[in-house]
C-alpha cells in the first residue's frame, strides 16, 4: 500500500509540473525574417507593443503576428522600419 501511495504522489506531481515545464519553453522570443529589410525582428514585449500601435493606426483588431499572411507581415515590417523604438517609445530622462 505504501508503494502505491508513493507512485500516486509521483504521478500527481509530474502531472502538475508538466504544464509549467512546457510553458517555460514558450518564453523564448520568436524571430521573424524581414526579406525586404534583410534583417530579423525579435518578437519580444517591446515589439508586441509596437505591433499594437501599428494595428491602432491601421484600425485593425489584434491578431497574432505569426498568423498574419506574408504580405501583411511585410507591411508591418515596412512600417516598423519607419518607426524605431526611440520614436515610438519616447523616454524622458531628468
Explain how this protein is built.
It is a single chain. The chain is mainly alpha-helical and 94 residues long. It has a domain at 29-88. 56% of the residues lie in helices and 11% in strands. The protein has 4 helices and 2 strands. The protein has a two-stranded antiparallel sheet with strand order 1-2. Strand 1 and strand 2 (39-43) form a beta hairpin.
Chart the SSEs and their pairings.
Layout lengths: L1 H23 L5 E5 L4 E5 L1 H13 L12 H13 L2 H4 L6
Antiparallel strand pairs: 1-2
Quickly list its features.
mainly alpha, two-stranded antiparallel ribbon, 2 strands, 94 residues
Give Rg in angstroms: 21 Å
> Which stretches of 5+ consecutive residues score pLDDT under 50?
none
What topology, given as strand order, has the largest sheet? 1-2
The total count of helices amounts to 4
> Largest sheet, if any?
2 strands, antiparallel
Through-space gap between termini: 68 Å
- SS strand fraction: 5-15%
| Overall 3D shape | elongated
The tally of beta strands, per DSSP, is 2
Tell me roughly what share of residues is in helical segments. 55-70%
H/E order of the elements? HEEHHH
What is the overall pLDDT average?
Answer: 84
Label the structural class: mainly alpha
Short account of what is shown:
The protein is mostly helical and 94 residues long. The protein has four helices and two strands; from the N terminus they run H-E-E-H-H-H.
Amino acid at each position: 500500500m505504501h508503494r502505491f501511495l508513493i507512485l500516486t504522489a509521483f504521478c500527481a506531481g509530474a502531472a502538475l509540473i508538466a504544464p509549467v515545464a512546457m510553458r517555460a519553453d514558450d518564453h523564448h522570443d520568436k524571430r521573424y525574417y524581414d526579406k525586404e529589410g534583410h534583417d530579423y525582428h525579435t518578437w519580444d514585449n517591446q515589439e508586441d507593443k509596437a505591433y499594437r500601435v501599428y494595428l491602432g493606426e491601421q484600425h485593425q483588431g489584434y491578431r497574432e503576428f505569426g498568423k498574419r499572411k506574408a504580405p501583411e507581415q511585410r507591411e508591418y515590417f515596412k512600417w516598423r522600419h519607419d518607426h524605431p523604438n526611440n520614436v515610438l517609445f519616447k523616454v524622458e530622462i531628468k
